[in-house]
Amino acid sequence: MEMKEAIFNYCLRYADSSLIIGHRLSEWCGHGPILEEDIAMTNVALDLVGQSRSFYQYAAKVEGKDRTEDDLAYLRDEREYRNTLLTEQPNGDFGQTMMRQFLFDSFQVLFFEKLKESKDEDMSAIAFKSIKESKYHLRHSSQWVIRLGDGTEESHQRIQNSLEDLWRFSDELFEMNEIDEVLIKDGIAVDLSTIKDHWMQNVVDVLAEATLNVPEDTFMATGSREGKHSEHLGYLLAEMQVLPRTYPGAKW
Amino acid sequence: MCNFELLLINEKAKMEDLQKLEEEFQARIDRGEKIEPKDWMPERFRKQLIRMMSQHAHSEIVGMLPEGNWITRAPSLQRKVNLLAKVQDEAGHGLYIYCGAETLGISRDEMIEQLHSGKAKYSSIFNYPTLSWADMGAIGWLVDGAAIVNQTMIAKCAFGPYSRAMIRICKEENFHNKQGYQILWALCKGTPEQKEMAQDSLDRWWWPSIMMLGPTDKDSPNSKDLMNWKIKMQSNDTIRQRFIDRTVPQAEVLGLKIPDPDLKWNEERRSYDFGEIDWEEFFNVINGKGPMNKERLQARRDAEKNGRWVREAANTYYKKRKEQAA
């Protein structure tokens, strides 16, 4: 695989993940459990869509085929999307959303911390900007995991169930393939195996404070690196892409 | 002196005190002073302000729903973040005004309860559905445009917290207004289908936007008091005329046609004459019989209900931490 192609695909992977989970969060807008959370979740969604735009714009530049960020976001199909399965899972209740966010944010913080050191200047710059945001996101989501875990009996049970449900998507965050191999050699990509233990330690610490149990079931889902998604993504994209698909070539 | 006489004298003294207080209060307002939460104020003034401010805050919150309806379908990433940020602003405005109203001695929970029970109202405009992307433009341009004309006036009102909230909110609303206009601008310069989308949207939102500025002066029961107290500075009809006058030329620039055959420039008045408003529709929508009243209120009630366990958990968590610290 050529370097250019590898960088392009690497950027798409992280752009897609941020866009899809940001989109999911934006579905909450106006329906949150408390007004302050409507504001906070929208903030996080805005940051995430912003991160995805940085990656898309850079991917488009690297590709050099005159595609725009919108072409990449709105005119690729389910099988071409590379977001991790975790990010496309439905919102469920507020606890489910926060647990999904917590597992994701925990990854993002460590990932960007390493990506800052990338030899690719653009990616390093994106990481510099994003790390500040992701640290705030993690503070927000982990505090909710703790509050709900150590709140009432009902909230404890609900969020424990969410953890059991979402845990199987955690391993995939660290999966690597040929793209990573090519880029790690040149000091561009993050060797995800180096942050996995750290991620686990951080997650386990928060779960312990939240009085939650790490799931015993170790079955792990996989597939997104090859564009094999859960059935949820197709609907999300159908909704998101409806206007550009219905009116090809129109400017908005 | 018997007890009864003493009681009467006391009562009379109280009445005189009250009258004096009210006169001083009105004099302060007439001098253009701001009334602050801890200042003495007539109960009716307090009540009217609570009614007005909570209605305003509810409108911001319910107003998140029609636009929220298009966040997941925004046609470009730039439009998506713009819309998200805009709806987030509305939430911020709601929060800000709820806090302002709380200084008058009512809690946010009580106000929300009044919204959900139907006792408190919100702006009629949000009971119309958003049926196309162009509606995101029309809401920013027309609905926020109408709101700005109204709120610029409230920014000068006599109650300090409300006035200050409006100064800040108006800045953001002006931005939303331009954003909405720019959405329509892009559509009007786009394909024939896009332009049609914009025209259809104007056709549907024009009259409701005209109506949202409130009943005509003779049917506006609260106006007289509000104007005496400088909570409201100008009548609904005056504001409506100003809104129409500034909006019609903007429609012309877009190349869109305002759906009012009677609309025409009146050289003598230096203002636009306009057609008859269907007040029956307005009062129907206000009284729960608009296209989306049921859905809007249900969405708010559902959010409240579905979030209850979350709020309870947060409260319990803080109680536990407090006990631990003690």
Descriptive overview:
- The complex is a heterodimer of chains A (252) and B (326).
- With 252 residues, chain A is an all-alpha fold.
- Chain A has one domain (3-213, 224-246): Ferritin, core subunit, four-helix bundle (Ferritin), CATH 1.20.1260.
- Chain A is built from 11 helices and no strands.
- The longest helix of chain A is centred in the first third of the chain and has 29 residues, at 35-63.
- The model of chain A has no long low-confidence stretch (mean pLDDT 97).
- With 326 residues, chain B is an all-alpha fold.
- Chain B has one domain: Ferritin, core subunit, four-helix bundle (Ferritin).
- Chain B has 13 helices and 2 strands; from the N terminus they run H-H-H-H-H-H-H-H-H-H-E-E-H-H-H.
- Chain B has helices spanning 3-30, 43-62, 64-68, 77-102, 108-117, 134-154, 160-188, 192-211, 223-228, 236-254, 279-286, 293-306, 308-325, and strands at 264-266, 271-273.
- Chain B has a two-stranded antiparallel ribbon with strand order 1-2.
- In chain B, a hairpin with a 4-residue loop joins strand 1 (264-266) and strand 2 (271-273).
- Chain B starts with a helix and ends with a helix.
- The chains are: A mainly alpha (252), B mainly alpha (326).
- Chains A and B meet through helix 1, helix 2, helix 3, helix 6 and helix 7 of A and helix 3, helix 4, helix 7, helix 12 and helix 13 of B.
Please describe the biggest sheet of chain A, giving its number of strands, its sense, and whether it closes into a barrel.
none
Kindly report how far apart the N and C termini of chain A lie.
Answer: 36 Å
**What's the quaternary structure here?**
heterodimer
Largest sheet of chain B: 2 strands, antiparallel
Assigned CATH class of chain A: Mainly Alpha
Second-tier CATH architecture of chain A: Up-down Bundle
Give the termini separation of chain B.
56 Å
Count of all domains of chain A: 1
Residue share in β-strands of chain B: under 5%
Task: Give the class of chain B from helix and strand content and strand pairing.
Answer: mainly alpha
What's the level 1 CATH class of chain B?
Mainly Alpha
Encode the helix/strand succession of chain A as letters. HHHHHHHHHHH
Structural class estimated from helices and strands of chain A: mainly alpha
Specify the CATH homologous superfamily of chain A.
Answer: Ferritin, core subunit, four-helix bundle
Radius of gyration of chain A: 18 Å
Order of helix and strand elements from N to C terminus of chain B: HHHHHHHHHHEEHHH
Uncertain stretches of 5 or more adjacent residues of chain B: none
* Record field, number of beta strands of chain B: 2
CATH topology of chain A: Ferritin
Q: For the residues shown, what is the average pLDDT of chain A?
A: 97
